[in-house]
Fold these 2 entries.
Entry 1:
Amino acid sequence: MNNFEGYKKYLEEMTRCFPNSGEMVNLYNGLIDIWGNSKTDDLLPLLSIEKLSNGLYLLDENKINQVEFTNCSETAVRVFEVMREKGLKGTESLNGLTSQQAVEVIKMSFNREDRHQNVVIKWILKLSFMSLIEKVKGDNAITGILEQGRFGKCPLCHAPPGMAIVDVVNNIEQRFLSCCFCGFRWPFSGTDCPNCRNNKPEKMSFFAGNSACEQGSKAVSCDECKRYIKTVFLKKRKDSRGFNDLDMDIEDVATIPLDIIASERGYTAVCQTR
Ligand SMILES: [Zn+2]
Ligand SMILES: [Zn+2]
C-alpha cells in the first residue's frame, strides 16, 4: 500500500482555486486509488551502469524483454478502465485490452524515443519507477556520476525534466530537476536553462500565477529558447510538504494555471522537447 490519499485533498483544494481543473482532478482521483493499491515490477534489470558511465543514461532499451511487466499490466488494465470511466478522449483503443495485450502496449511504448510524451504509460509505470528509484538512490557509483555531470535530461531514462524543485541543502540553495517520465530527481545548476544551457541572467525570468494555490511554484523561463520549467520553491510553501513529500505528477496538475500563463506568453514546457 502506498500512501497517496493525502493528495486527493490537496487536489480538491486546488480545484477550488482553479475551477476548470475539475475533470483532470477527477481523473487523478481514480489514478490515486490505483497507485495506492497496486503491485510493482522490478525494473532493475533494465538498467546499465556502463551506459551511464559512457556519458549516456541508465536505461537500456535492449533489455526490455528481461522484464515481464506482470504487475504493470494489471495496473494498465485498471488505468484503462479509469480512463474509460472518466471519459478521457483519444484513448478508446485501449478499452477492454487484456493484461497480456497490455504487456505489448507497455513494451512498445517503452521503446519509443518519445515515450515521455505518453502520459498513460507514465501512469502505468509510476509505482514501479518509484520503487526502482529507491533502489538506485543508494548506489554510490550512480551518485558519483550524477555529482560530476550536468544532466539536462534524465540520467535514468533520458526524458527531459518536467519540473524543478529548489531546496536548501546544508544552508545552500540547490536546484533539482525531476524527470517528466520516470520521476527521477537529480541536482542541476541553479542558473542554467536545462534545455539550451543559456545562463545569462538577463535572458532568464520567472513568473507566477495569481492564485494562492500554487504554493510557491513559479515558471522559470528562458528567452534564448523560449522554454519554461515549473519550479517549486520549497521554502515559499505554506503547507509543510518537504522534498520527499512532493509527488511531482500531482504538483504538475496542481500548477496547471502556470502552464496556461506560459503558453499565453509564447513559452513551451521543457518536457515538450523531444
Ligand atoms: Zn527519467
Ligand atoms: Zn533555454
Entry 2:
Amino acid sequence: MKYGESGIKYALRNSMKFYLGTKYPNWMREKEFEDVPLFVSHRTLLKYKKLHPSLTSWSLDSGGFSELTLYNEWRTSPGEYIKAIRRYQDEIGKLDWAAPQDWMCEPFMNEKTGKSVEEHQRLTVENYLELKYRAEDLPIIPVIQGWSLDDYLRCVDMFLKAGIDLEEYETVGIGSVCRRQGTGEAENIVYRLKPLRLHGFGMKTTAVHRFGYLLASSDSMAWSFSGRMRPDPECPKKQCTDCRHYALSWRENILNPKIPNLFNQLVGCQ
Ligand SMILES: [Zn+2]
C-alpha cells in the first residue's frame, strides 16, 4: 500500500475533502476562505449572539472532546444541540454536516468517565438514533468510535443491529483514531473499514499524509499548534497560533506536500 508523491497529491487533491479547523467563525464569511472548507465547533459558535452567512462550505464539530474532558459527560442535551444545529443551518448556511454527540474512546477518556469502550460506543449509537429521530431533516452524520480494530468493527455492527447500514451513508465519522502512538495502526484500522466513506476527526499532519488517500474527508487544527512551535519568522507576532496566513499556507502544504520524503520518515501522529 505505497503511494508515491504524485499518488499522494492526486489522492489528496481529488478525493479527500479537507476541512481547516478554526476557532474564528468570521473566517466563514471572508473572501480569502471562499474555497477553503472550514471545521467549526459548536462550543465556539454557541458564544455568538449574531451569526453571518458563510461563503464557504463547512462542517460542525459537536465539541465532544472538550465537553467530556471538562465534565466527564455530555451536559448539552440532544434537544439543545438540535436547536443549535438548526440555527447554524438557517443563519450561517452551507453546512455540509454536523457531528453527533459521540463518546470518544481514548483510554484516558474512559478513565475519566468510568465507562467501558463498549458503553461509550452504545451511547454514541444511541445518541445518533435520538438525534436522527428528533431531527431527521438535519445533516447529522453517524460516527464510529473505538480503540482497537475489533472495537471499531463492533461499533459498525452496533449500527447495523440498530437498522443502520453505514455503507449506505455518504459520510461516516471515525473518532479517536489519531490519538495513538503510531499512525501504522490507525492506517490499518481505516483500511479495514473500507468501503465506508470515512471522515477522520482531528487528524495530525503525518496521518493525513500517510492515509489521507483512504479517507473521504478529514479535519485538522494542527496548524495552530504548529504555528506556536514553528512560527513564520517574518510574522510580526511571536507566535502564529491564531494567524490566518499561517493556517492557509499550512493547509496548502498539507494538500501539496513540499517535502514528501520527510513525511515518509516520520512515525506517529504529531
Ligand atoms: Zn503569524
